[in-house]
Amino acid sequence: MTSDRVLERVLDATQSTFNSVLDEYRPRLQVREIGRVKSVGEGIASVSGLPNLKINELLQFPGNLFGIAFNLDPDEIGVILLGDSDRLEAGDEVYRTGNELKVPVGESLLGRAIDATGRSLDRGEPIQVEERRSIEREAPAIMDRAPVTVPLQTGLKVVDALIPVGRGQRELIVGDRQTGKTAIALDTIVNQRDKNAICIYCAIAQRNSAVAKAISTLRESGAMDYTIAVVAGGEDPPGLQYITPYAATTMGEYFMERGHDVLVVYDDLTRHAWAYRELSLLLRRPPGREAYPGDIFYIHSRMLERSTHLRDELGGGSLTALPIVETQAQNISAYIPTNLISITDGQIYLSPDLFQKAVLPAVDVGKSVSRVGGKTQIAAYSHVSGDLRLSYSQFQEVEVFARFGTQLDEDTRQTLQRGRRVREILKQPESQPIPVAEQIAVLMAANEGIFDDIPLDRIEDAENAVRERTIDRHPDLCDRIENSEKLSDDDRQSLVEVAGDAIAPFLDDNEVENSADND
Ligand SMILES: Nc1ncnc2c1ncn2[C@@H]1O[C@H](COP(=O)(O)OP(=O)(O)OP(=O)(O)O)[C@@H](O)[C@H]1O
C-alpha cells in the first residue's frame, strides 16, 4: 500500500470517529433567566428584566436571599423579600426559580420552633425535610367537608360550658392588649395532651420575650411533644411576617390530610394585617380604609377557609383555627376585627375591665358567641350550660343596680349571691386545664346553689374539694361523662350529693349567716 493510500484511510477513520463523537455530544446547557435589581427598600425590591415571571414565583438574589414576586407591572416587578436586604444593591442579579415558595411539612417538625421557610430557631439540629408544600393552597371544596361534630375541649370552664369550640371550627379570640388572649390559646394547646391532636402555635411579630415565654410554657407542660411553633419576630422583614400564617396552615393541612385533628393558633392577625399594609404601601398599591389595601379581607378569608372538618372518605381529619386579634380601646368595630368577626364562626371576647378586677380568664360571656360549637358539646353540658348562662347574665344585669346601694329584695339578693359565686367558679389560673367530668361536677353544684353559703374567698378550696371527691367516689360516672353519655336523674343526684358532702367542711368553720355580707 502506498503512503498516500495509508494517509487516506487514516483520514477516513478519523472522520468517522469524529462524526460519531459529534453525534453523541450533548452540551450541558443551563438556561437561567436573569433580571436586575432596580432599587431596594425596607423589605421590598424592584426588579426588571424577567418578562416571563409568574405571580408569587420565588426569586433568588445574591447571598442566598429569596423574595416573592408580588406586583407584576409591565416595566418593573415588585418583590417582597424574605430575609435581610442590607447587602442587596441596585444592579445585582436576580434569578427565577420557576417555583412558588414551598415550606417543609411532616412529623420531623413536631417539638421544633422554626420560621416560615423551615429554618430552625431553637438551636436544635437542622430540620430533616421529608416533603415540601406550597404555602398558598386551595381550601377544601364544599363537597369534601363534613359537619363539625366533635368538641375541641379547651379545659377552661367558661369556654367549654358557655362558648364551646368544635373541631374544624374557626373561633376568634378578640380583646385589647394584655387581656389574656395568648393565655387562652396556650391553655387550649396544653389541654390537647392525650387527645391525639397536633397543635401549631404561629406567632406573628410578637415580642421575642413573649414568644420565648409561650414556648417555655408549652415545653414545661409537655405540650411541645405534639406542637410546632412557627415564628416571625417583630424585627423580621414584613414579607416573612406576611407568609408565616400561610406556612403554618400548610404545615397543619399535612396532618389534617392524614386524618389527624389539628389546632392552629394565629397570634395575632392584627400584626399580620399591619405587615401586609406596610408591604402594600411600599409597593405603591392603592390604600383604602385605614390605609389597608383593597384585598385585606381576602388575605384572611382565604387562609381561614382552609380550616375545616374533612369527610370520612378523606380521612376525617380536621383543622381548627383560633385566630387572635387585638383591639384598641375595646373597639371591636374597627376594620380588621370586624372583618375577622365576619369570617369566623364566633368570638371569645376578653374584657380589660374583667381583667382589672382579676376575673381571669377575662371572658365577657355576653359579647362572646360560638355559632357552631354548641352542637358538638359533650352531652352532660346540656344539663348545666343553659342555667349557668341565664343565672350569670341575670346577675350581670342586677349587679350594675346593686352598686347604687339600693335596698334589695330577697330574690335579687339571691341572684347576686349565686352570680358572685358562679363568677368565682368560672375563674381559672393559667395552664391548669380541668377535665370535662370535673367541670360538670363543679358547674352542676353551682347551678344547684351548693356553693351559695360559702364565703367568696373559700370558693376555690371548696371547688377543688368537689372535684377531688367526685373523681374519688364516681370514677365510672366520670368516664361516662367523658364519653359524652347522657346523664340520668340518678347520675345528677349523685353528683349533687357528692358536692354537698365535699363542701361541708367549708360551711362548718365559717359563720354561714354572714357569708352574703362578706361578698
Ligand atoms: N387565667 C389567668 N390567670 C392568671 N394570669 C393570667 C391569666 N390569663 C392571663 N394571665 C396573665 O395576663 C398577662 C397577659 O396575658 P397574655 O400575654 O396572654 O395577654 P395578651 O392579650 O395575649 O397580651 P398581648 O396583647 O401582649 O399579646 C400575662 O402576664 C398572663 O400571665
Automatic annotation (TrEMBL):
It is an enzyme of class 7 (translocase). Pfam families: ATP-synt_ab, ATP-synt_ab_C, ATP-synt_ab_N. Gene3D superfamilies: 2.40.30.20, ATP synthase alpha/beta chain, C-terminal domain (1.20.150.20), P-loop containing nucleotide triphosphate hydrolases (3.40.50.300). This is ATP synthase subunit alpha. Produces ATP from ADP in the presence of a proton gradient across the membrane. The alpha chain is a regulatory subunit. Residues 31-98 form the ATPase F1/V1/A1 complex alpha/beta subunit N-terminal domain. Residues 155-370 form the ATPase F1/V1/A1 complex alpha/beta subunit nucleotide-binding domain. ATP binds at G175, D176, R177, Q178, T179, G180, K181, T182. The keyword Thylakoid applies. Belongs to the ATPase alpha/beta chains family. It comes from Oxynema aestuarii AP17. It is found in: Cellular thylakoid membrane; Membrane. The keyword Translocase applies. Keywords: ATP synthesis, ATP-binding, CF(1), Hydrogen ion transport, Ion transport, Membrane, Nucleotide-binding, Thylakoid, Translocase, Transport. It catalyses: ATP + H2O + 4 H(+)(in) = ADP + phosphate + 5 H(+)(out). GO terms for cellular component: plasma membrane-derived thylakoid membrane; proton-transporting ATP synthase complex. Its EC number is 7.1.2.2. The record marks S368 as: Required for activity. InterPro entries: Alt_ATP_synth_F1_asu, ATP_synth_asu-like_sf, ATP_synth_asu_C, ATP_synth_asu_C_sf, ATP_synth_F1_a_nt-bd_dom, ATP_synth_F1_asu, ATPase_a/bsu_AS, ATPase_F1/V1/A1_a/bsu_N. F-type ATPases have 2 components, CF(1) - the catalytic core - and CF(0) - the membrane proton channel. CF(1) has five subunits: alpha(3), beta(3), gamma(1), delta(1), epsilon(1). CF(0) has four main subunits: a(1), b(1), b'(1) and c(9-12). NCBIfam families: alt_F1F0_F1_al, atpA, PRK13343.1. It is a peripheral membrane protein. Residues 377-499 form the ATP synthase alpha subunit C-terminal domain. One of its GO terms (molecular function) is ADP binding.
